[in-house]
Amino acid sequence: MPLDSTLRLLLLSALWGASFLFMRIVAPELGAFSTAFLRVLLGALGLIVILATIGVRWNFQGKGLTALLIGMVNSGIPFAMFCIAAQYLPAGYSAMFNATTPLLGVMIGAGFFHEAMTRDRLIGVSLGLIGVTVLVQTGPVAMDHQLLIGALACLIAAGCYGLAGFLVRRWVTQRGGLDTRLLAVGSQIGATLLLAPLMLLEAGSRPTLAAWWNADIWWAMLALGLACTSLAYLLYFRLLQDLGPVKPLTVTMLVPPFGVLWGALFLGERVTSAHVSGGLLIALALWIILFKAPQPHLR
Predict the structure, then answer these.
(1) How far apart are CA 198 and CA 180, in angstroms?
(2) For the chain, which residues score pLDDT lower than 70?
(3) For a Cys-Cys bond, which of 91, 129, 227, 282 suits 20, CB 3.0-4.6 Å?
(4) Could you give the angle at the alpha carbon of 99 between the alpha carbons of 93 and 102, nearest 5°?
């Protein structure tokens, strides 16, 4: 991999790992839906400014509504779910749950999109689920209903990411394609439209609005929306352009270590053997699914 692509990959991993840190800071104060809404709103505004600056033509080729719908699945619901989880789970936990996206993608593909379930994929999914179980049952967070709510929210988010990949292929790629930068900004606008009413309901029901005047919260919010969303999307799509569709998926393995690292450095989150053992099992599962040579399918 060229040095410049390697540096972009590491920066992208650090940014997406940091997103769990910032959600952990903001969501308990502003609320899950308000945090998710502001993230996609800032992400959309940042992308609009960047695309206008570099002179990208706004031609959605009749796929504008499709981009909005994909954004609701690929950004709106997952960001809201991760913000719900951020109210209960350490940032490192959520980052590691996020790594299950390819595992759930394999299961969704086999169940609903006629994708072949190979022996290696089945082994990978099994190892990944064992890794999640190790993290939940032996990690530093007590096993209670709050942990289960947070874990379920993360898995719903990862499942949406997995589903979105198939929707993009069916609704966009197989119908002539679309400039990925337009798809990125269209998806953030779609997510903003989905989350706006939920944000308004949540903001009206919270007992105090003091957090909205907290400068530290807004610095974290700006970092989440502009750096971890706008800039991160541009880095990711540049990697897709330079390296093709497979190698950038390495980011899935690199985000959890960064998520755990930022949580430990800035929030004082404990790192235990459960992080190591569960993380290694998930990493092995991802390697088997993403990079091991394909084998004959089971059906």
Answers:
(1) 28
(2) 1, 139-140, 207-210, 240-241, 243-250, 291-299
(3) 91
(4) 155
Q: How far apart are CA 295 and CA 116, in angstroms?
A: 10
Residues with Cβ within 8 Å of 122's Cβ and at least 6 positions away in sequence, in order, are 298
For residue 60, give the amino acid letter: F
With beta carbons less than 8 A apart as the criterion, state whether 164 and 74 touch.
yes
Distance separating alpha carbons of residues 164 and 217, to the nearest angstrom = 30
Count of other CB atoms within 10 angstroms of residue 120? 17
pTM of this prediction?
A: 0.89
Please check whether residue 83 is in contact with residue 220, taking contact to mean a CB–CB distance below 8 angstroms: no
φ, ψ at 103 (rounded to 5°)? -65, -50
pLDDT of residue 131: 82
Tokens read off for 88: 């209960």
